[in-house]
Amino acid sequence: MSSVEPRARRRGERSLTVGVLVALLASLMPLLRVVTPGAWLLGTVVMITALLIAGFAARRLRLPAVAVSLIEAVLWVAFMSVVFLRDDSLFGVIPTVDSVQLVPRLLDAAMEDIVEGVAPMQATSALGFLIVGAAGLLTIVVDHVVLTARMPLVAAIALIVVSLIPAIAVPVEPDVSAFVLLAAAILYLVRAETRSREPLAPPRPGRETAGPTGATATALGIGAVAVVVALVVTPALPQPVIKGGAGEYGTGIGLDASLQLGSDLRRPREVEVMLVRSNAPAPPYLRATTLTDFDGDVWLPDRSRTVPLTDPDGFGPLGVDDGIETVEQTTTIEVRNLSSTWLPVSYPATEVTGVQGEWGAVPYNRTLVARTASSQGQQYQVVTQVPRPTLEQIRAREASRPPSATTGEPDSTTRVPAGLPSIIRDLAREVTAEAETDYDRLAALQQWFRGGDFRYSLFAPVEEGFDGSGAEAIARFLEVREGYCIHYASAFALMARTLGMPSRIVVGYLPGAPTTDAIDRQTVHSVSTSRTHAWPEVYFDGVGWVAFEPTNSLGSPTAFSSAPETPGDADGGPEETDGPSASPTASATGAAPGLDADEGGTATGTQTTGEDGWPPLLVLVVVLIALTLPAAVRELRRRGQLSAAREGDVAAAWILVQETAIDVGIPVPAAESPRALGSRLVEAHGVPADEMRRLVEAIERTSYAPRRSRMWAGEGVPDAASAVRSALLAGADGPRRVLATVAPRSLIIRPGTAYAAARI
Question: To the nearest 10°, the Cα dihedral for 160, 162, 166, 171?
Fold first, then answer.
């Protein structure tokens, strides 16, 4: 026994250490969907591995548990000092006052990255410090709980919670593979810990194992809990609230007008940017600025002449031919959470009233630029004169060069960079080969992009950066035919230029989602960060800039109706269409039709929280199911123990009695012999003496008697164990009996541990 037990103990510790390593790595896998892999990932793996190896080595030297944890803590401090605080540490390893004072600043910077960042975030040194440091502390705690306290289920709960944090912060599909790996690691931990403390009594001849043991059933139950929580409970949890800063509406968030819109679209949760209502047939798109100059790598925001908004001729004339009808519309906008130098307006604006501060009107693209103001908290009205040419009128006009470009160079709207990938020019000619007019060519391009060959995705596999809009990235987009608005808009604008048509890109917002509020019989629409959008425009002589909507499954395509055949068919203007000439129009609901939630992330044009959340009754059912899981796991474990006892495993029956005592609050000290425990249960808790004597004799014979006398030890043991268990439950008071059934302590507190000896 003296030589067998140390070897078994070492094997058990080695197995548990490997299990802890796998479980820790699995619990951190969801971080890869939130933070871009980098040096932090290598540092985390090295930190976890080094700490576990140090703990294992210290236990091999038979050091006390306190010394093991202290060694791991010292190693953690040294690692963090060398990697992150080397310049301020003594000899690059030993912390100093300066290095300690640097820690709060790093944590503050990391929290700022988390609050303001969007997934997937680039890991700064501060964020890496937080992740690696937290992973190291988690390793020390889990290593102590599993290897010293022998409470793997407590560690399992902690690991499940840690793995859920990224899923709660970023509402995306659960990482099923990570949770399956975590559940398997938890199962392995529970089984390894159970085997490391099982009695060394030999099993029945010819039977190493027979069916699932109680420990296996428990581990399977915990794995099921992990998967259920990941797939069912997490989506029902409320999302974290992003708070503004000072003032009535806070400081607001920004808008990136350099076509890096992925950061806005992939925010951890949607943030309401503004409220909009209009007398237009459908809520309008809102523009912030335009981008015309393209050097092959990036589209640059237009820098054009501005005039004071108070100038009577601020935006200048529309430049629309007399024969084309225009419709006046008024849009009221209330900015809730947007801090930008551009003020979102509908197009084409002719008048803006109600703004506070000094603003400049940009005649070139009919936008507003702040001089000494900000968009945050503004409430204003925009009057637009929307051109409505007929289909015949738009076909009769060429997509010609506008009167002036933003930079003063008349060719900036048609400039095609040198070295443009041939696929862009070739596909433009191929798609428009059968079209006869400029408008028909653009309509063919729009229909081609919105066809079934393209798929909207925020995770497009472009090569020129995740959010690339350069020529090479667009060529790649045309090959894989998967991307989001910046890819569609950039490709459309470039292809139009290769056909000799002037184009530019607009950055702004899709129409908002309707709310239940209405003012002056106008429905109030909510515009959130997921509505951030980009779309192309092409200039037509006598009409102006005409917007198109090539992005597959977002908004509605631009289209025009034919003129009435007779004056009596209509009021003399074109019929209402899905897309007016100057700005693409959303569907009647303001939502983005045709986009599944799993295809477009949060940029579907629909709300992902609130009214679209789970029904309360379904959430209640899920919560009730989760609450019954501990009882179900305990029942599975009891059945497994009785099954093993019927096949001769006396130890399983004895553990059943011990765990029942723990469930009802009876202390089960590790140093107490089976005979002493049996006597105490009979005298103090009223269990049947005959059944208890049968169990005690069986476990003693199994543990100490010669092999030949063990073969009859298990006779009658299962029934005796069931009788003792029933008596223990019956002898407990009502609340304790209910608690023992609904939340059995034995799932966490194991017989033989220090916690089992405590009285509650």
Answer: 40
Q: At what angle do helices 616-646 and 734-742 cross, to 10 degrees?
A: 90
- How is residue 230 annotated by DSSP? I
| Strands 482-483 vs 455-456: parallel, antiparallel or unpaired | parallel
CA gap 432, 722 in Å, rounded: 81
Closest-CA residue to 213 (of 186, 185, 194, 189): 194
What sign does the CA torsion over 749, 751, 752, 757 have? Answer: positive
Residue keyed to tokens 């915990």: 222
Q: What is the mean pLDDT of residues 440-455?
A: 89
Cα 498 to Cα 313: distance, rounded to the nearest angstrom:
35
User: Are the C-beta atoms of 344 and 290 separated by less than 8 Å?
Assistant: no
Strand 367-370 relative to strand 342-343: parallel, antiparallel, unpaired?
Answer: antiparallel
Q: How far is CA 331 from the centre of its chain?
A: 34
Structure tokens that stand for 25 in this block: 């790595």
- Round to whole Å and give the CA distance between 81 and 187: 35
C-alpha–C-alpha distance, residues 79 and 409, integer Å:
57
Q: Which structure tokens are listed for 381? A: 């009205």
Distance (Å, whole) CA 688 – CA 686: 6
Q: Is 321 helix (H, G, I), strand (E, B) or coil?
A: coil
How far is residue 558 CA from its own chain's centroid?
34
Alpha-carbon distances, residue 587 vs 130, 388, 576, 594, 682 (angstroms): 45, 18, 12, 11, 76
Q: How far apart are CA 175 and CA 162, in angstroms?
A: 13
Residues 6+ apart with CB under 8 A from 386: 280, 326, 327, 328, 329, 348, 580, 581, 582, 583
Strands (E), 463-550: 482-483, 503-509, 513-519, 522-528, 532-540, 544-547
What the block records as the tokens of 328 is 């006046």
Per residue in 460-515, pLDDT tens? 654 444 456 678 888 888 888 888 888 899 999 999 999 999 999 999 999 888 98
The one-letter code for the residue type at 332 is: T
Peptide bond into 120 cis (omega under 30): yes
What is the residue whose two structure tokens read 């796991």?
Answer: 633
- The answer to whether 339 and 332 have CB atoms below 8 angstroms apart is no
CA-to-CA distance for 288 and 415, rounded, in angstroms?
Answer: 23
Please provide the size of the chain in residues: 760
Farthest-apart Cα atoms in the chain, separation? 112
Is residue 301 within 8 Å of residue 291, measured between CB atoms? yes
SS3 label, residue 381: strand
| Residues forming beta bridges with residue 291, ordered by sequence position | 301, 505
Check if the beta carbon of residue 410 is closer than 8 Å to that of residue 596: no
Mean pLDDT across the chain: 75
CA distance 200 to 2: 12
Specify the pTM.
0.49
Q: Which pair of tokens denotes residue 556?
A: 């509605």
User: How many Å apart are CA 119 and CA 534, to the nearest integer?
Assistant: 20
Q: Retrieve residue 404's tokens.
A: 């002036």
Cα–Cα distance, 249 to 693 (Å, whole number)? 74
176-181 CB contacts, 8 Å cutoff, 24+ apart:
176/227, 176/230, 176/231, 177/29, 178/26, 178/27, 178/29, 178/30, 179/26, 179/226, 179/227, 179/230, 179/231, 180/227, 181/22, 181/26, 181/29
| Residue showing tokens 């004072």 | 101
Burial label for 670, CB within 10 Å (0-12, 13-18, 19+), is: exposed
Whether the link from the prior residue into 348 is cis, omega within 30° of 0, is yes
Q: State the DSSP code for 610.
A: G
Average pLDDT rounded to a whole number, residues 56-73: 85
Distance (Å, rounded) from C-alpha 369 to C-alpha 374?
Answer: 9
Segment holding 388, helix H or strand E: strand 379-388
**pLDDT score recorded for residue 506:** 92
Percent of the chain with pLDDT over 90: 15
Report, as an integer, the average pLDDT of 241-270: 50
Task: State which H helix or E strand residue 274 sits in.
Answer: strand 272-278
